[in-house]
Amino acid sequence: MHPYVLAVTGASAQPLAERSLELLLANGRTVHLVLSRGAHAVFRAEQGLTIPVDSKKQISFWRQRLNVNKGELICHRWNDQSASIASGSYRTKAMVIVPCSMGTVGRVNAGVAMDLIERCADVHLKEKRPLVIAPRETPFSLIHLRNLTALAEAGATIAPPTPAWYTQPRTLEDMVNFLVVRLFDGLDEDLAPLQRWSGPLR
What we know:
Helix 1 crosses helix 7 and helix 4 (102-110) packs across helix 6 (142-153). It is globular and about 55 Å long. It contains seven helices and six strands. The chain starts with a strand and ends in a 17-residue tail after the last helix. By secondary structure, the chain is an alpha/beta fold. 37% of the residues are buried. The chain has a single domain (4-163), classed as Flavin prenyltransferase-like (Rossmann fold, 3-Layer(aba) Sandwich), CATH 3.40.50.
């Protein structure tokens, strides 16, 4: 199976990215992980985590933090546009940007690749590979909506992390699991058990 690109930007929903990485690795997937400069800052501000920038140290950090030894993890610096995943000739299964800031959405829509995340998104669009964008903003302005619409027209899947209560979540972790599993449903992945809608209870 071709690898995934998992990108994390500086929007406020880093637990979704962390759980996505954990579940992909636990299911034996190969993951190319890219954190934007803003993502590093948000991890520090919201969770008190200082994540190494150095690729090898970052791999060790995630392996220790997640306690998952399965799968393959490759970490890239946000500005390394010579990375394998920056080229369309490098095959991937899909790219998921979670969470995705509106700045990233705007630059990807404009075709402006200022970092590795934006370049990879551009590659997935031009190569017609799955690109899943999980925008984390509320409310959406008209500019946001137009940018998201243009990306959907270009082939991206727009998947806002929208919670649901029919699963009767009891903890925040339950809700995070629901959001992450639903995020990958469209990529034909069943990453974890999930109570799915089967009609009203009788």
